Every structure is written in structure tokens, then in C-alpha cells.
Amino acid sequence: MYFFLLALHSLVRWLVLISLLYSIFIAYRGWLLKKPFTKADGIIRSVATTIAHTQLVIGVWLYCISPVVSYFLHNSSTAVRERQIRFFGMEHITMMVIAISVLTIGSAKAKRKTTDQQKFKTMAIWFTVALVIILSSVPWSFSPLTARPNFRPF
Question: Could you give the maximum distance between any two Cα atoms of the chain, in Å?
């Protein structure tokens, strides 16, 4: 189960990034070009948020069964000094929960705005902040701090 969830979590991250980048593009385009906020724009906002929530659920489930996290939780006084163990036991989940919270707040605020420009602007700003947090907290294959493969096989 652990390795399946790990591969699924690795795959869904790309869906999160693609949907978030696309929704940010739509938001900035609508905001800067003063376009009307359509039903399709609302669906794009909602889909990006839903995919991110799905990824969070998979991540929390993975967190609960991860041997790395288990080691961190049972040996926190020594594990906190080990960069990779600390990253997965504490840093990654904290930053991702913050990022998904920012994304959710931004989505809810954008949905409640009264003008199209306010909707796009709110979505653009909040989603961009969430994306920056996500990008800084993913264990990319090129990261000198905590590297993991970009794609994991099932």
C-alpha cells in the first residue's frame, strides 16, 4: 500500500501543478485583459482546488503509514537533526498544508467577489502564493537538500 500511495502521490503532483499553472494563467489573463469571469473560469478554479485537496488527502494518508515519518515521530530528538527525515516528518507536510489552505482561502474569496476583475485578481494572487509555497516544498529530483525522483513507477 505504501509504495502504491507514494507513486500515486508522485503522479498527482503533476496534475496539481498543471491545473494550478493553468488556473493562474487564466486568472492573470482575465485580470489584466479585463475579461468577463465565465462559468468555465469558475470550473477551472474549482478543479484546481479539488485536485490539490485530493493530493493533500493522499499525502496525509501517506504520512500516516510512512516508515520515514514513523521513524521521525518515534525518534524526534535525533531525527530532527537529519535533513531528509526532518523534511518528510515535519517540513513537507507543514508547508503543503499551508499551501492548500492558502489555495482554499483564495478560491473561496474569489468565488465571493462581486466583480469579474476582483474574482480574477483574488484568484491570481492567492493561487500564485500557494504555487510558490508548493514549488519550494516539493522534493524535486534536482534539489540539493532533499531529492526524490520526479516520477515513481507503480
Answer: 55
Rounded Cα–Cα distance for residues 68 and 114 (Å)? 46
Rounded to whole angstroms, the Cα distance separating 103 from 109 reads 10
Res 41: pLDDT: 98
Q: Rounded CA gap, 87 and 40, in Å?
A: 37
Whether the CA torsion 129, 63, 49, 8 is positive or negative: it is positive
* Mean pLDDT on 39-55: 98
Distance of CA 27 to the CA centre of its chain: 18
pLDDT of residue 118: 98
- Residue 41 and residue 30: Cα distance in Å, rounded? 9
Mean pLDDT (the chain) is: 95
Of 8, 15, 21, the C-alpha closest to 131 is 21
Please give the Cα distance from 141 to 145 (Å, whole number): 10
